[in-house]
Description:
With 307 residues, the chain is an alpha+beta fold. The chain has helices spanning 10-19, 23-31, 55-61, 81-101, 114-123, 158-175, 182-185, 193-205, 251-265, 279-288, and strands at 3-7, 38-42, 45-53, 65-76, 103-110, 128-138, 152-155, 212-218, 221-230, 234-242, 269-275, 291-303.
Amino acid sequence: xxxxxxxxxxxxxxxxxxxxxxxxxxxxxxxKKNELTHYIEENNILYGYRIFKNEPLTNLYGxxxxxxxFYFINIDTLHERRQEENITKLLIHLNNVIEKTxxxxxxxxxxxxxxxxxxxxxxxxxxxxxxxxxxxxxxxKKVDDYNKNQLRIFQADEKYINKYKTKLLEMxxxxxxxxxxxxxxxxxxxxxxxxxxxxxxETSVGSNSDDLVVVVxxxxxxxxxxxxxxxxxxxxxxxxxxxxxxxxxxAYKAMIAYAINYAYSxxxxxxxxxxxxxxxxQGTWASLGLKPFYSIYNIHLDRRIKK
Length: 307
């Protein structure tokens, strides 16, 4: 038995996971439960979900696109009959809202809450399974720099990014040419999936982004970068790319080691995520000491009203 509280937010969840104390997370959910679309409470347990509009995809495709996130307080990750009954009621409510509203929905199902999966299998029909992602972390551990080829690794300022932005974006587009994310897997969104990730890349490296940009140079030229988000609890690796011509220089591992040590210097966790099948990257993370702390199934529902 493992009683936890859960939000699908790796920055907030990792602190409770490390401390094995979910009380602060439960308190936050309680304080903001009126922001949920719907919830059920029973015996100090809360089961809830929130629907919000995915504006970038709505603007790109022209139809209404939505995301669904789940929230739980004091839930057992193992099976419990009454718990499954309540989650089934929650999903019936969700399904009714979806059918009534219409649109295209992305449900993120945490893989470690078995009764949510059991209830999903009972209630949700005609879904599109679009793979999943794993979230990983490392905390209070300094690692070697793994910089074996005299690479220069540093946080780039706005002037540097503007100077090399075209080159940074080009190496990113090359890295993503063979990328097969959830929107590539869905036959509904596949046609414009490349544009989704292109927009994401340009936003992350854009001048209006708050992300830190860590660059790796070889022979005075950028050959890779990683963008980092920083909060009170964690430093998050968001987007990374290495030029095709320099993939054997150890640039990626050196950049992640730099990011881990930057988080360590701030007494924060380093967190990051990737697709289930990105085994090479996960292998690099494992060699640096990162560990998984939760994972997600991506489920798509096409409930657009046919015209």
